[in-house]
Amino acid sequence: MAENGAPRGRSTRMTGKERREQLVLVGRRVFAEKGFDMTAVEEIASRAKVSKPIVYEHFGGKEGLYAVVVDREVSTLLTALEESLSDQRAHPRMLMERAALAFLAYIDENEDGFRILVRDSPVSHSVGTFSSLLTDVSRRVEVILARQLRLHSYPIKDAALYAQMLVGMVAYTGQWWLETRKPSKEVVAARMVNLSWFGLSSLEKKPELRGETKG
C-alpha cells in the first residue's frame, strides 16, 4: 500500500480531485512539521509520490497549497465556534463554555491544522493568519458581550476590548494545552470560564488602577 492508503498500480490512478485532496493532506502534515519557510515542494511531491510539476499543476506552487490548507483550517474552526455561539437564548456563561470547549476540541482533533494556524504566515498570505482568525472570532464575541453590557448599563464601547481579552485568553491557553494535553479539555474550559465569568460578573463600570502612578 502506498502512503495515505492509496495502493500502487496503474489501475488505481487518482482522479484530479483525488490527487488534489491527497496533496492538501500531505502538505498539511509537512507545513505542520516544518513551517512554511522550511517546507519544500520537493518534499511534498516526494511524500505524495508524484513529480514536482504535479504540485505546480494543482496549486501553482507552495504558496497556493499553503493558502488552501490555511483556508480550510480557518473555515473548520470558525464553523465550530459559530455553532457554539448560535443559540441566542442560551445564558452568556453557557455560550462562553461552549465556545471555549469548541476551540479546545478543534485543537484536540486537528493538531496539525492548529500548529499551522499559530505559526507565522508568509508575508504574501495576508488572510487566514492566527491574528486575523482571532479578530474574526472576537467580533462574534463582541456582539454577545455588547448585549450583556447593555442589559447591565455598562459602557457598550468596552465590548470590543473585553472580547479581545477573552478570546486571547482562550487562544493562548489552547496553545499551551496543545503541548501538555493535561488536564482534560473539559477541565481546562471550565477553569477558563470560571476565571473570565466571575471577573465579568463583578466588573466595575469605570475601573481605575489602584496603585500609585507617575506622570
Question: What descriptors fit this protein?
Answer:
215 residues, mainly alpha, Tetracycline Repressor, domain 2, disordered N terminus
Description:
The protein is an all-alpha fold and 215 residues long. It has a domain at 70-201: Tetracycline Repressor, domain 2 (Orthogonal Bundle), CATH 1.10.357. The chain is built from nine helices and no strands. The chain has helices spanning 16-38, 41-48, 52-59, 62-84, 92-109, 111-118, 130-151, 159-180, 185-201. Helix 5 (92-109) runs parallel beside helix 8. The longest helix is centred in the N-terminal third of the chain and has 23 residues, at 16-38. Residues 1-11 have low confidence and may be disordered.
**Helix-strand category:** mainly alpha
Number of helices: 9
Listing every helix as H and every strand as E from the N terminus to the C terminus, the arrangement reads: HHHHHHHHH
Look at the structure and name the CATH superfamily of the domain at 70-201: Tetracycline Repressor, domain 2
Give the overall shape, derived from the CA principal axes.
elongated
Pfam families: TetR_C_46, TetR_N
Keywords: DNA-binding, Transcription, Transcription regulation
Domain HTH tetR-type: 17-77
Protein name: TetR/AcrR family transcriptional regulator
